[in-house]
Amino acid sequence: MVTEIKKTFLHSIVTSKLFWVAFILFGFSFPILRVLTRELPKPLPTYGVIPSFELVTEDNLKFKDSDLLGKVTISQFIFLNCPTVCKASLKNMKKVQKRVRGLGNKIALLSFSVDPENDTPKDLFKRARELKANPFIWKFITGKKNSVEDLLVKGFKVPMGDKSYSKNVYDIAHSEKFVLSDKSGNIRGYYGKDKNEINRMMIDVGLLVNNAFKN
Fold it and tell me: Coil, helix or strand for 142?
């Protein structure tokens, strides 16, 4: 008898239009409520603004700060005859290029030479092709030494020291970090070369591209 009552009760609920209206409303409103109540990430800090500059690319074409407007930019600092960390840094940038390939013209990757007196556009072009750099996204930048140094030291706030010689090779003091800037040219982060740091940078890239921060 009790079983029959339960069956009758369940049947009346399932066949009730009011039940299904309530069920559908709850089903749709729950994910909407989650979106509305989800806390947005806090904005990244701002470390400065990339100043005006005009340098040249591996294609020997002019490249200006205005070319970066509207794009999230990842910058690094290398030189072609680097005997230490630059090869690994360039390999990391190649991995980054692969990870951002779906962003199209929303992203820019820049490899600035800290040895502009020796890294000619022709040499940079050769290295870019070796790395299979996408010329629409990844640019190799050089120019007059004083212009490059001003941009790096005063703009990006990274070191660019003199050459030091050892056993017939030389090194140049420079930053090993990646620098992330937003669509307006504001510097928003500095990241190391290890896997965790690069993963953290990629999360921040996605947030900046999608304007995911609070106003």
Answer: strand
Q: How does pLDDT run across 161-210, given as a tens digit for each residue?
A: 665 554 444 565 567 899 999 999 999 999 998 999 999 999 999 999 99
Q: Say yes or no: 28 and 56 in one domain.
A: no
Q: Please give the model's pTM, rounded to 2 decimal places.
A: 0.78
Q: Which residues contact 147 (CB under 8 A, 6 or more apart)?
A: 53, 54, 55
CB 63 within 8 A of CB 199: no
Domain range holding 166?
Answer: 48-209
Query: What is d(CA 145, CA 150) in angstroms, rounded to the nearest whole number?
Result: 9
In a domain, 43, yes or no: no
What is the largest distance, in Å, between two alpha-carbon atoms of the chain? 98
**CA distances in angstroms from 211 to 70, 172, 183, 185, listed in the order given:** 12, 37, 10, 14
